[in-house]
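Subject: Protein record for review, amino acid sequence with backbone structure tokens
How to read it: Take the token row as a discrete description of the fold.
Enclosed: The protein record, placed directly beneath this head.
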Amino acid sequence: MACQQSRYHSFSSASRLQPRPSGVTVDESFLTEDKSTQNRKLLQKRRTLTGQFSMGGHLSPWPTYTSGQTILQNRKPCSDDYWKQVGSCQQHSFRTAKPRYLEELENYLCKELLLLDLGTDSTQELRLQPYREIFEFFIEDFKTYKPLLSSIKNAYEGMLAHQREKIRALEPLKAKLVTVNEDCNERILAMRAEEKHEISLLKKEKMNLLKLIDKKNEEKISLQSEVTKLRKNLAGEYLHYLSERDARKILIADLNELRYQREDMSLAQSPGIWGEDPVKLTLALKMTRQDLTRTQMELNTMKANFGDVVPRRDFEMQEKTNKDLQEQLDTLRASYEEVRKEHEILMQLHMSTLKERDQFFSELQEIQRTSTPRPDWTKCKDVVAGGPERWQMLAEGKNSDQLVDMLLEEIGSGLLREKDFFPGLGYGEAIPAFLRFDGLVENKKPSKKDVVNLLKDAWKERLAEEQKETFPDFFFNFLEHRFGPSDAMAWAYTIFENIKIFHSNEVMSQFYAVLMGKRSENVYVTQKETVAQLLKEMTNADSQNEGLLTMEQFNTVLKSTFPLKTEEQIQELMEAGGWHPSSSNADLLNYRSLFMEDEEGQSEPFVQKLWEQYMDEKDGYLQELKQELGIELHEEVTLPKLRGGLMTIDPSLDKQTVNTYMSQAFQLPESEMPEEGDEKEEAMVEIFQTALERLQVIDIRRVGPREPEPAS
């Protein structure tokens, strides 16, 4: 900066340009002046520079006259390298000096930039002003290149203005982003405070529970010690009573012995005993000795037989101990068996888990090898018409598959708008009748809303009276009646290309499916009749005719209208209608709003959920039929077998409905269908997959509940 200021002061004395006032107020005022004032000032400055500092009033031919001399290349005015090169060049001969006009322009540019650098509020916009003025001088002086230079200047000025407008438009978004960031930070802080409070409460509750557990453990330990003490006391009392019993028995034996001795003594002391007969006494003595001998023998036998026998008290104690040990052994064996079985189960589970882990790991490696990265859908916001806001509105709540369909619709709609003509598809048999044309067909370019309204009018006319012609023929006749024979083919191609692209639109997708034969008309008609019947039932339940129903009435109407739906399906319909698990049954529901449509024919989530459940029920019905028949898709199925499978999974089917299903599956008129039990039935076979695809086209649904299987 000091070098630049010194250079500036050294050239200011030689410059004849009047420097602008200090500060940046002049530049800012220059930005606010009108175009004529700016042109006038630039013209005045240019005349001053051209008239005073050109060589003789003409531009110098430098550096052409210095061919062969050294020329300073790639220098930037007012830079340090520039002044170094200028200083080195000043040491050479004045033969290679630059023209005065170029030097004065560089000096003027340096002074302007130095003045801007000295200001405190100078911006990049103001720093461009000196360069604008220098460029204006060049444009005015170089007459030959003036148009090219003016176009270059205008292009850059236009781009700068466009960027300035974009920056100005993004300023509110930046402020809004700051506000949203602050709001989110406040919410996060509030949530953290709540979580901290809940954590503190849970910690307190945990401490209280731990204290309660410790208290219970202490009580358990005290009770166990008391039980142990009581057991010891009981064992002591038991031993005491055993000892008392044995002592009592011994005492009784001693008393009996003493009584016997006393009786013997009384007999010995009796005076009449000596007067008895000696023979009798001898005999008695002999018998007594025999008894003594026999008793002695019995005693010896008893000693020999029962010498090793333990007392009954010890036997009972050992028996009790043995019983306790046996119980413990049985308990341990049971526990061991249980643990062993659990161990075997855990080992099997562990082995299966290892196999699953290895399988999942191999699948993961295969997926990582073959899979592609998940697309960044935010890149589409700058491509889709309407910008990020419309893309965010379109992409809300959609998965990747739906986003791809939506992106294809956007791309296809853009291509349709660019096309002015469609090439005719010719007159081949594979071409639908309403598209058979050779040549170019005009693209009418209707809006999406116009196409939807036209399709609705076609459906109204189709349902107004019974039509015997096919749906494609009716569609082309309808276009001829509406737009005339000359424009009918153009409208047919235009509408066909539109409905082929917009899969997310219900009216277009259903019309396309019926038009191409992928779905029967009865499916659309039955769905409309179901919705109308449901609306009628809700209107009947609304006794006050206010358009409001309670959630309980809403639930009752759904169950009465759809008796075969499960509780989960009823709950899904209620949630699609606006019911939440936290809501009360007394909450009121505006049921009429559930059946409204927007301008593009899109229905409310409630009607969309009805359609999704219908398609799921149809798929489940056909899947149940496949499981009942138990055959592969590529195998053949006979008419009686298919009819029997339908009657098994849905016993409430009547004969007419079954014949309709069989007629569609085997592509025969109902009048040519053989009677049940006829021999011709066995000869009628069809590939099972083909039959299922044909049944998928028509309106096939469950009529009544399936009979429960008998309990075994």
Observations:
- Confidence is low (pLDDT under 50) at residues 1-35, 49-77, 82-95.
